Amino acid sequence: MFFCGFTEGKTRVRPGSDAAPVAATVSVMTKKLLAVTTATATLGVLAVLGCSAATASAKPAASEAAAASTAAHMTAFTTDDGPTEQVTLAGAVGDYGQAVSVNPDGSVNPEHDSQLELRLQHGTFRLDIAGIDKAFVAAMGSRFPTAPATCSGTISVTQRVAVVKGSGTGAYRGASGDFTLTITLDEVDKPTAGKPCDGSEAFLNQTIITAGPGNIRF
Q1: What is the DSSP letter of 174?
Q2: 67-110, pLDDT tens digit by residue?
Q3: How high is the pLDDT of residue 194?
Q4: DSSP state letters, 120-140
Q5: What does DSSP say about strands 84-91 and 71-78: parallel, antiparallel, or unpaired?
Q6: Buried b (16+ CB within 10 A) or exposed e, 133-145
Q7: Is the peptide bond before 21 cis (omega within 30 degrees of 0)?
Q8: Which superkingdom heads the taxonomic lineage of this protein's source (predicted)?
Q9: 200: Cβ–Cβ under 8 A, 6 or more apart, which residues?
Q10: Is 184 helix (H, G, I), strand (E, B) or coil?
């Protein structure tokens, strides 16, 4: 017969002793209990490690989701030197309207050397464009026209542009963040007879595109 996992005849019993089989049985049961306890503890440790690993892997996913929720892309364009452009923002903003060059007091700035107010369907906010405008003007002065033979040229500058603190209204109240924008100009000027093109001529046609990615929170 079987008793607690042992076959009869394999338990050593000293002559005249009734306690030996019981002691052997208890000893074996203790060993089995210890083995089960050890296995259970090991599984518990593995479970904790598994949970920790899952939590750790979830953190980057959460960070990526947060970054995605603030990511935006802006494209504005104009075909003249006026203060107004058409603008579209995709991603976190998802809006469109006009981009108007303004001074800090809100008045229109035809020189483009202060702020750009994005007047969108659901609110407004401004970008500080003073730095990128300065870089653009410098590039025009030193590099345009890039094709004197055809009296035309292409100029492109890139710079980080911050959202002006406190400028948000409507859905964009409290907006903060920045964009990395590239201003690209393609222009054809009117040649003057007997005079090489140097960028001082009146333009016949131009397209200016301001575009780039950014992150915005509001």
Answers
A1: T
A2: 557 999 999 999 999 999 999 999 999 999 999 999 999 999 99
A3: 86
A4: ETTEEEEEE-HHHHHHHHHHH
A5: antiparallel
A6: beebeeebeeebb
A7: no
A8: Bacteria
A9: none
A10: strand
Non-local CB neighbours of 163 within 8 Å, separated by 6+ positions? 125, 126, 127, 128, 175, 176, 177, 178, 216
Token pair of 84, please? 């107004």
Contact 209, 77 (CB under 8 A): yes
Q: In which region does residue 201 sit, left (phi positive, over 0), alpha (psi from -120 to 50) or beta (all else)?
A: beta
To which H or E segment does residue 165 belong? none
Q: What is the total residue count of the chain?
A: 218
Q: What does the alpha-carbon distance between residue 193 and residue 41 come to, in Å, rounded to a whole number? A: 93
DSSP track, 17-70:
-SHHHHHHHHHHHHHHHHHHHHHHHHHHHHHHHHHHHHHHHHHHHHHHHHHHHH
Neighbours of 167 (CB within 10 A): 22
Q: Are 145 and 199 in contact (CB under 8 A)?
A: yes
Of residues 15 and 200, which shows the higher confidence score?
200
User: By the 8 A CB rule, do 92 and 72 touch?
Assistant: yes
What are the Cα distances from residue 193, in Å, to 47, 62, 175, 201, 209? Answer: 84, 64, 52, 11, 30
* Residue 12 per-residue DSSP state: -
